[in-house]
Amino acid sequence: MTDLLWTRADDARATLLLAHGAGAPMDAPFMTRIAEGLAARGVAVARFEFAYMAKRRTTGKKFPPIKAERAVPEFRAAIETVLAAPERIGPLVIGGKSMGGRVAAIAACEALDPAVAGVVCLGYPFHGPGRPEEIRLTPLQGGLLPALIVQGERDDFGSRAEVETLDVGARARFAWIEDGSHDFGPRGASPATLKGNIAVACDAVAAFVLGFADGPADA
């Protein structure tokens, strides 16, 4: 795990720990837009990289992603690091982009520190592109924490038409991104825009995360 990359908010009341997707680093444009948008809405964001991605950064070689289940210990270590960090404010929500969100959801299937209040999945990979038969519902159905899934309506990893037919469990809720891809981008002819879709995503995540600020989680 790399050192944490913090995007701070002067008026923060809660913290989000955010992991990257399988193919892009923690400071990829999508991750940065989300972190900055949340900081502007009162959420402190800590980003980190799994070891394989950190090795890409330090060596310049393209190491393959590890299986999501094998990344859970790294995510748990990141949780402990954030909980001990002076920058952490209020309850902690864990999550990530695509694979990072899936790893967070798997981690939340077992008891975590009481300060961890929920899970955010940005583009949950319900299946691989073109492989709808490989549905990954267990982390959502077995999760012990409330979860917010922010999903593009035409995400190749699980579109709205597909996902609304699935049983995702009682703890998961959705925020749908209009005409959004896996990165929330709309098609050129769509009335939606990438900037607007990122703002909608940040509004939904901030409302979810800050909703725990006055709750029972340890502050």
Structural account:
The chain is of the alpha/beta class and 219 residues long. The chain has a single domain (5-210), classed as Rossmann fold. 32% of the residues lie in helices and 18% in strands. The chain has helices at residues 29-39, 51-59, 68-84, 99-107, 138-141, 160-163, 194-210; strands at 5-7, 14-19, 43-48, 92-97, 116-122, 147-152, 172-177. The protein has a seven-stranded mixed sheet with strand order 1-3-2-4-5-6-7, with helices on both faces. The longest helix has 17 residues, at 68-84. The protein is globular, with a radius of gyration of 16 Å. The two termini are 25 Å apart. The model has no long low-confidence stretch (mean pLDDT 93).
CATH topology: Rossmann fold
Let me know the average pLDDT: 93
Beta fraction: 15-25%
Structural class by helix and strand composition: alpha/beta
CATH architecture heading: 3-Layer(aba) Sandwich
Features:
single chain, 219 residues, alpha/beta, Rossmann fold, seven-stranded mixed beta sheet, 7 helices, 7 strands
